[in-house]
Amino acid sequence: MQRLLVTLPFILISLLSHAQFELMGTANFMSGNCILLTPDVPYSEGLAYHNAKLDLTRYFEIEFDIFLGRKDEGADGITFVVHDDPREYKAYGTWGECMGYGRWSPNAYWANSITPSIAVEFDTYQNLQQNDPMYDHIAYLENGVSFHKTHWNNNKNDFNIEDDFLHDFRFSWDPSSQTITVKLDGMVVYQGKRDLVNDIFNGETSVIWGFTASTGKKSNLQYFCLRNLAYQPLENLIQPSSNGKAD
Ligand SMILES: [Ca+2]
Ligand SMILES: [Ca+2]
Questions:
Q1: What sign does the dihedral 191-193-195-200 (CA atoms) show?
Q2: Of residues 219 and 235, which shows the higher confidence score?
Q3: d(CA 228, CA 96)
Q4: From the CA of 147, how far away is ligand 2's center (Å)?
Q5: What's the rounded Cα separation, in Å, for the pair 92 and 46?
Q6: pLDDT (tens digit per residue) in 104-118
Q7: Would you kindly state where each structural domain of the chain is located, as residue ranges?
Q8: If you measure from the C-alpha of residue 135 to the centroid of ligand 1, how many angstroms do you get, rounded to a whole number?
């Protein structure tokens, strides 16, 4: 039995595939290893959850391409969500400005929203009720609250992500420092420290993850494309022996 020498920065646990996603609403499989969230049709809502839960006790990095549309005047955007909602793979939030994730008012507890949860929204339409700026932006959200006090727009008042391009999205979680890092096209768009297991998920370490999106009066084609899910190097990883069993 020999130990595997880890030379790559990450061990790829899985190359993602279509079949690993559970779809709701307008979500549908597309060609090119992509999953449709909403067509360019008003009042659509689509969600896609990976069927294997994330383990928050371990480092991970998730990488996708996201597409937010080709009309600068479209709506509403996509969220990446990590949740432990009791509805599990049937959990969804309010359509339109809440992007299938949140609720229109923080105090509207009766309204559909995904909670307990964290999310990152890629917001392409200004909704004053959610404190949106006039330009496209990215914001960190918790427990189904779409309202946000801060956002990221690369300090550009013409920031636009409905530009007919795929955008490289990465989300990483480091449990040792309790740090969330979100990147878009190589730029850090959110970084924060949070004890996710205790402060959000009430001690639960195994959580569901995926994407939500919606349209409202205005719309856009919105989808994501599969790339990688990677875990940290495993120094003690044991290579299976020739009979397929590890010892
Ligand atoms: Ca825009
Ligand atoms: Ca919005």
A1: negative
A2: 219
A3: 29
A4: 9
A5: 9
A6: 999 998 999 999 999
A7: 11-231
A8: 6
Match 């400005």 to its residue by tokens: 97
What dotted CATH number matches 11-231? 2.60.120.200
CA of 162 to the centre of ligand 1 (A): 5
pLDDT in tens, 150-170: 999 999 999 999 999 999 999
Ligand nearest the Cα atom of residue 128: 2
Distance 55 CA to ligand 1 centre (A): 34
CA of 150 to the centre of ligand 2 (A): 13
Apex 72 CA angle, 68 and 76, nearest 5: 50
CA of 164 from ligand 1 middle (Å) equals 11
pLDDT value for 116: 98
Residue 11 — very low, low, confident or very high, per pLDDT cuts 50/70/90? low
Structure tokens at 222: 């919105």
